[in-house]
Amino acid sequence: MNREARIFVAGHRGMVGSAIVRRLQKEGFKNLHTRTRQELDLMDRTAVRAFFENVRPDYVVDAAARVGGIAANFEKPVEFLIENLTIQNNVIQAAADFGVTKLLFLGSSCIYPKLAPQPLCEEALLTGPLEPTNDAYAIAKIAGIKLCQAYAREYGKNFISGMPTNLYGPNDNFDLHTSHVLPALIRKVHEAKRAGSKDVSVWGSGTPRREFLHVDDLAEACFFLLENYNSPEIVNIGCGEDVSIRELAEIICDVLGYEGEIVFDASKPDGTPRKLMNVGRLLASGWKPRIGLQDGIRDTYEWFLKTC
Ligand code: GFB
Fold first, then answer.
1. How many whole angstroms from 136 Cα to the centroid of ligand 1?
2. Which residue ranges have their beta carbon within 6 Å of ligand 1?
3. Number of domains present in the structure of the chain
4. Is residue 156 left, alpha or beta, with left meaning phi > 0 and alpha meaning psi from -120 to 50?
5. Is 115 helix (H, G, I), strand (E, B) or coil?
6. What pLDDT does residue 285 have?
7. Over the stretch 202-255, which tens digit does the pLDDT of each residue have?
8. CA-to-CA distance for 67 and 296, rounded, in angstroms?
């Protein structure tokens, strides 16, 4: 990629978009274009088209989405469907109509069927029913993948799709009601330690297994795909290792130095039993993750202490 290329990162204020911007800046790209929601509402088709017509990006990374943890997904299926479908339709269609050379769309591991064989291969897409706690988000993301693939087949566009596993890192959402598990547990353990509580509450049974990738590793994978990957076939992005929610809670207690008890709240949903990516396709092409879970949690906790 030419370092002078015009690159639009949609969603640059979020955890993923901000990590991608940091990565591209580190690589020496100077012609980065970003817009806050106040400057450009990605739900507004006319405004999005005017932006593309005016800026004429060469590359687009679509990291703009309504995201959230298990509770937010379950409580707001309408918003998760409509906002994600609208934003991605606006961005992908404008990219096609205004001559973008390459677009990277970001999906999620929740696009795969709830009971798909583990680790999850790209071929498992649309082979069975989805996990109901996040099927609205998953359906929107599947529609985004299909739109990119349709543009590739019908109009020869180089629109690619990466499927990240559960992500975490700086700029994550630490709101206990809407966040994913890892930032929620950092906040809960931090507050339990500060208050001298004898225990900390973890949702569900603690047995579901999840794979966690630091967002800086994801950003490196995205850059790698932008430079090297030119197929409409989706690519998983993960580290290839998972832990149970109990193990995650124990690691977080350890990193934060909290010695209280972990108690499980069975009134809360477990969600899908396991979500581990098969990352063979990406590893075979040369990328590998660098940040281990303990180090990544330490880094994220430092960011939390400075910011929240
Ligand atoms: O990260 P999470 O909210 O979402 O929850 P998913 C993962 C697991 O952690 C579930 C448990 O079994 C939760 O019950 N958990 C334990 C907690 N304590 C907590 C807590 O305090 N907060 C939260 N949030 N969870 C998401 C999807 O699914 O995965 C999204 O909802 C997205 O659509 C994302 O795809 C990658 O991993 O279950």
1. 15
2. 69-71, 73, 108-110, 134, 137, 166, 179-181, 184-185, 202-204, 208, 210, 245, 268-272
3. 1
4. left
5. coil
6. 87
7. 999 999 999 999 999 999 999 999 999 999 999 999 999 999 999 999 999 999
8. 21
Catalytic residue among 137, 151, 229, 258: 137
Query: Which residue minimizes the CA distance to atom 7 of ligand 1?
Result: 181
- Cα–ligand 1 centroid distance for 22 (angstroms): 26
Entry pTM:
0.98
* 40-91 pLDDT, tens digit each: 999 999 999 999 999 999 999 999 999 999 999 999 999 999 999 999 999 9
Rg (CA), the chain: 19
**Residue 1: inside a domain, yes or no?**
no
Atom 15, ligand 1: which residue's CA is nearest?
203
Within-domain flag for 253? no
Amino acid in position 49: R
In a domain, 118, yes or no: yes
User: Does 299 reside within a domain?
Assistant: no
Q: What is the DSSP string of 221-268?
A: HHHHHHHH---SS-EEES-S--EEHHHHHHHHHHHHT--SEEEEETTS
Query: What is the per-residue pLDDT across 101-146, written as a single tens digit (0 to 9) for each?
Result: 999 999 999 999 999 999 999 999 999 999 999 999 999 999 999 9
Instruction: Quote the domain boundaries for residue 147.
Output: 7-172+212-241+275-292
Closest approach atom of ligand 1 to CA 268:
14
CATH number for the domain spanning 125: value is 3.40.50.720
- Catalytic residue flag (residue 137): yes
Give 83-112 pLDDT, tens digit per residue. Answer: 999 999 999 999 999 999 999 999 999 999
How far apart are the CA of 30 and the centre of ligand 1, in A? 36
